[in-house]
Amino acid sequence: MTDPDPLVIFTPSGKRGRFPVGTPVLTAARQLGVDLDSVCGGRGICSKCQVTPAYGDFPKHGVHVTDTALSPWNSVEERYDSTRGLPEGRRLSCQAQVQGDVVIDVPAESQVHRQVIRKRAETRALTMNPATRLHYVEVAEPDMHDPSGDFERLAAALEAQWGVTGLTVDLSMLAALQGVLRKGNWRVTAAVYRDHTGAAPRLLHLFPGLHEDGFYGLAIDLGSTTIAAHLTDLETGEVRAASGLMNPQIRFGEDLMSRVSYVMMNPGGDTEMTNAVRGALSDLAAELARDAGIDPALIVEATLVCNPVMHHLALGIDPTELGQAPFALTTSSALSLPASDLGFAAINPRARLYILPCIAGHVGADAAAVALSEAPEKSEDLVLIIDVGTNAEILLGNTSRVLACSSPTGPAFEGAQISSGQRAAPGAIEKVEIDPVTKEPRFRVIGMKRWSDDPGFAPRVVATGVTGICGSGIIEALAEMRMAGIMDASGLIGSAEQTGSARCIPDGRTHAYVLHDGRAEGGPLITVTQGDVRAIQLAKSALYAGARLLMDEMGVDRVDRVVLAGAFGAHISAKHAMVLGMIPDVPLERVTSAGNAAGTGARIALCDIAARAAIEGNVARITKIETAIAPAFQAHFVAANALPHASDPFPELAKVVQLPDVSFNTGGSGADGSGRRRRRRG
Amino acid sequence: MTDPDPLVIFTPSGKRGRFPVGTPVLTAARQLGVDLDSVCGGRGICSKCQVTPAYGDFPKHGVHVTDTALSPWNSVEERYDSTRGLPEGRRLSCQAQVQGDVVIDVPAESQVHRQVIRKRAETRALTMNPATRLHYVEVAEPDMHDPSGDFERLAAALEAQWGVTGLTVDLSMLAALQGVLRKGNWRVTAAVYRDHTGAAPRLLHLFPGLHEDGFYGLAIDLGSTTIAAHLTDLETGEVRAASGLMNPQIRFGEDLMSRVSYVMMNPGGDTEMTNAVRGALSDLAAELARDAGIDPALIVEATLVCNPVMHHLALGIDPTELGQAPFALTTSSALSLPASDLGFAAINPRARLYILPCIAGHVGADAAAVALSEAPEKSEDLVLIIDVGTNAEILLGNTSRVLACSSPTGPAFEGAQISSGQRAAPGAIEKVEIDPVTKEPRFRVIGMKRWSDDPGFAPRVVATGVTGICGSGIIEALAEMRMAGIMDASGLIGSAEQTGSARCIPDGRTHAYVLHDGRAEGGPLITVTQGDVRAIQLAKSALYAGARLLMDEMGVDRVDRVVLAGAFGAHISAKHAMVLGMIPDVPLERVTSAGNAAGTGARIALCDIAARAAIEGNVARITKIETAIAPAFQAHFVAANALPHASDPFPELAKVVQLPDVSFNTGGSGADGSGRRRRRRG
After folding, report:
1. Are B37 and B74 found together in one domain?
2. Does residue A131 belong to any structural domain of this protein?
3. Is there a contact between B318 and A175 if contact means CB atoms under 8 Å apart?
4. How far apart are CA A533 and CA B271, in angstroms?
């Protein structure tokens, strides 16, 4: 009886099998289905298939690996090492041959389906599984005796060497084909796009010779106010550059409905807005390529998330229908398009654009992206996810069911419609504390760590000045005013006599609280007015009422945790948000920020076609709630006007904050529109 | 025992079955798989499903049909008849219900797969089976409670009502969708494109309400010299308009190789030529729509056939590789593209363009179209098909095997490179006869039926003059000169002394034959010179050598029949062509003209997607012969220089024509380059 073939064990997969002496490690890996990359197909010219053999005793695996378990370095490995450097302990798995029992570690960077690390544990794992992959091929030269086209021979090579069947090609690629094939002397690297739909693979780009490194995608979050994009390496998932710019459509209207109105009032207005946003997307792509120092032609894919109105305007579809019942989308499905259809100029002319599905007429691809990033359908506990923006997208769900709606909060949370409001920029007040005894405030402005009562504040703030209050600042100011007894549960700001603070100054028939008086230095007087309170009350009531509507539908009156998404969500203090009743009562530590979850969702869809299939399936399963026609919405909205709420108890909030039981309603004329209640119930 | 259900018999299919009383005739037809059209899906609003019931005794079918075999006219039929008129004896099959045994004739115009009549018996039957079809649907209106996109509801309706699954749509169609759906009050007719590739169906166009009539395709034959197109009704196959124009690329070079040279000498020359031809294609499409009086947006498809150089130039691919060995095509496969990729401006922006496959680097989609039209693979006898143009495409085959090559005949057959040559236009000599005794000619010019020796010729020819000789005229002139003993087998024109005709005049060191002397009337002296003979000899030798090469490969030295294709082929007399040895010897009645077979092939591919699949398969099975590298080509070429041939016997020709055994070679210096042979062998 002869000795058995050597045993080859791969880690971390644990896959194992016996192979004849002389088998290349790459061949063994492929036969076992081990996730081991290769662009050149085992020709020893790319570095993708590197592995780290381990030597010695492995009692766990029951093997002893000797120094001669693999064949010695051959000339290919030596040449590779001398020209490009093979890291210590590494072998090229296509060259190293099995000689005896061996344990082979596949490092993360040699895996095709690399895991990309995400910061928060509860989020969806991101595995690299992009639509576009690079394949090096050697193409048969043309033969007069057996005539066939260059493209047909390239396609045959990709089929024989990489299993790519039914390759398709567009005219711009065809026109470039003969040049690249001849420049590479019939050795080329093909970027082949195969997505999750089962559509025929597409030849996106062709590089002469071996092209191992560098092809990219753009993950774009197209918001009403800002457009953010991440330039992502489609091989590693690494973000190579990130940037944002203002949505140029703002000049047509601050919020979505004013843009829809613009279209209704101005024939051709939709085309103007489409051109504006497409120009901005192109500019942003070019800027990111410049920032990362890459050739923009290497950007071969993009994903886009946005709300339904932005979706239609970016696609060149009149959004008027979205401004009126029944809020009919022209299309709700995910879309896969040539990026050039949206006028992307600098990037690869054949780049593909994937747009996530819309959930409903008011709940867009941005909400789908949040669902993809935050994966409520995988949450064991009931999670409420709020993407705070000019429109708030709200998701509620767990493994059994997911609900979604949107609520028209308006731009107050972003500092608009606030008397001293401004966008988040240096000089804007972003944090506020008010002493409950003295009623004196202190604050921090964006761009400086010191508080306003720190000795070094005054000389340093000269650079920016104190210019206004940003979105998170107004939330904190209002919450602190409520906690300090300057404002009552109905939202009424007390007079100087009622509050005992000279900072409460008359403002017409109401009062305002002076946060900062910079007039002596030529700056503004920054106050919080009764009108500011009303604007925030309207916004937060809409937000809360939307959440309540989903809770009603789910049949619950509490949630287990709250996730605040959106750039703004990252800056809201959970305590302050809850004092104002922006979010339902939960333990404060169960309120987390997901950052730009919509942007993250776009990046996941960019890197992983399985995620595209998943979100398309999940969106179809999400229950959509239309706030505009829900009979209970108005009642929830009115009850949510009080701070934190007229009727819902906030026991978790009460554990950490004692809200003063004050009332400034003197029974006089109508400053308080929310009713005559004097105290919070419950 | 109850009576059996009534028997329903459909003619001409003969399909029959029993159906319960009250079954609509359309339903019975569908269940039996009878080919019966309907656009509206049985709603009684289109006229497509008309049938003619037959009454009385039908011993052949064993039934007696009473007057009450079908339900009486209902209100739908009455309304239809009063508004649009129902022809005598016709019923709408969706309304008429079976009441008793009945025989139902489905007239040709009610069949989905109508046969289109073709003139010649040996050609492929053309069955209407276009990629684009119209389907009327009623689409669900948007519902806030169950939100979905307009497109998704349209696609669902098409799937439920017409079995169209996986509908796709492009951005321009999406942008138009909401307007059309609302204009049609959610009743629309969809033009759905589904070709033979199995690719997902595409929504090409959407009409509000019912659109029954009128959607069109263009069949384009893009030649080096002329571009011809047929505007075809995609429902009936009827040609609604036909037109042609000169290929504007002629200014860059008369023949293909001079155009390739232009590209090699002038950077950017390919783009110039691409723009020129695309502009001409667009103009032609617009002109045809104008001629037919139709909205160009109703043109939703086009097919294109052309030689490989035109193919690459139209597609925007540098044709340089086609000008040098190994004559590599960038792509040889059939292509399905957006017509807008080739800049078609006026027609439907989503129109699809199908380009037939190329056979080899010198044998293009035009040859594939000839193969589609003439179907050599279905011929029991061995057929030689020659498409005569600036380049000749040659096919040889029968049911066992088909071979193809191209041969560089040059433009002499089209009247170029001929001293008195001109394009076929009024005033050009197109027919020639020479009296073998007097050696006097008579001729006809294009635009007049009288011969030049008819009494009324002179006064009438003043309108055009006698301006030159066209391609078919030069063939006839040379053949007549050979038959009249004015020119010998080597192609040498005799002197006045040798021939006994004063029309043989000195022309340098050679002689020319005077066909017409119009100088007295201010017209030209029209002669056939020795140089003209040499040009035609070169062209016909190339043609014959190509055919011989295929016959060698096939292992035969005769063919059963010859088909002359191409516009020029229609005007060549078989006898004259054979006297010159342009084609191999066959009985004269076995030489037929196929007219513009390439254009016909384009029209077949336009009307029948099964034909597209068939020609793609057939092209893959055709054996390609590259004349440029075949060692025997040169020998065949030299031997073919003689008229009709130096060595091949022409027994069939000898049965009808006695060629005089003359020789005008006096042993003097080199007018006869083909050798010193004095007489035809065999």
Report:
1. yes
2. yes
3. yes
4. 65
Structure tokens at B392: 């000749």
CA distance B77 to B577: 60
Looking at residue B124, its pLDDT comes to: 62
Q: Across the interface, which of A143, A321, A331 has its CB nearest the CB of B174?
A: A331
CB A66 within 8 A of CB A55: yes
Question: Rounded to an integer, what distance in angstroms lies between the CA atom of residue B415 and that of residue B256?
Answer: 16
Task: Domain count for chain B, please give it.
Answer: 4
Shortest Cα–Cα distance, A326 to chain B (Å): 5
Q: Contact A357/A365 with Cβ under 8 angstroms?
A: yes
Residue A117 touches chain B, beta carbons under 8 Å: no
Query: Domain of A605: which CATH number?
Result: 3.30.420
Sign of the Cα torsion A259, A263, A265, A269 reads positive
Q: Are residues A238 and A342 in the same domain?
A: yes
pTM of the model: 0.87
Question: Is B2 part of a structural domain of the chain?
Answer: no
Residue A676 resides in a domain: no
Is B488 part of any domain? yes
DSSP A126-146: EE-B-SEEEEEEEPPPP-TTS
Cβ distance B174 to B151 under 8 Å? yes
Distance between CA atoms of residues B170 and B351, nearest Å: 11
B279: contact with A, CB 8 A cutoff: no
Based on the fold, state whether residues B654 and B595 are members of the same structural domain.
yes
**How far is residue A144's CA from residue B629's CA, in Å, rounded to a whole number?**
8
Amino acid at A580: L
For residues A243 and A303, membership in a common domain is answered with yes
Classify each residue of B60-69 as buried b or exposed e, where b means 16 or more C-beta atoms within 10 Å of its C-beta.
Answer: ebebebeeeb
Contacts of B169 in chain A (CB under 8 A): 331
CATH code at position B34: 3.10.20.30
| CA–CA distance, A133 with A168 (Å, rounded to integer) | 15
> Do B98 and B38 fall into the same domain?
yes
State the pLDDT at residue A681.
Answer: 38
Q: What stretches in chain A show pLDDT beneath 50?
A: 669-682
**Is residue A316 within 8 angstroms of chain B, CB to CB?**
yes
Same domain, yes or no, for B657 and B612? yes
How confident is the model over B362-399, as pLDDT tens digits? 899 999 999 999 999 999 999 999 998 777 899 999 99
pLDDT digits (tens, 9 = 90+) for B402-412: 999 988 887 78
Contacts of B325 in chain A (CB under 8 A): 144
CATH of the domain at A148: 3.10.20.880
B interface test, pick of A148, A318, A355 with most B CB neighbours within 10 Å: A148
**B8: closest CA among B114, B96, B118?**
B96
Radius of gyration for chain B, computed over Cα atoms and rounded to the nearest angstrom: 30
Write the ipTM: 0.86
What is the per-residue pLDDT for A667? 67
Answer yes or no: are the C-beta atoms of B350 and A206 closer than 8 Å.
no
For residue A511, the SS3 value is strand
Give mean pLDDT, residues B178-205.
96
Query: Would you call B631 an interface residue with chain A, using a CB distance cutoff of 8 Å?
Result: no
Asked if B361 reaches chain A (Cβ–Cβ under 8 Å), the answer is yes
Say if B327 is an interface residue toward chain A (CB within 8 Å): yes
Q: Which of B334, B355, B376 is the last residue of a domain?
A: B355
Tell me the pairing of strands B50-54 and A623-624: unpaired
Domain hosting residue A26, numbered range: 7-110
**Closest to B637 in 3D by CA, of B667, B670, B675, B668:** B675
pLDDT at A519: 93
Residue B35 · residue B112 · CB < 8 Å: yes
Domain identity same for A267 and A336 = yes
Which CATH number goes with the domain that contains A350?
A: 3.30.420.480
User: Do A542 and A403 share a domain, yes or no?
Assistant: yes
Task: Tell me: pLDDT of B165 over 80.
Answer: yes
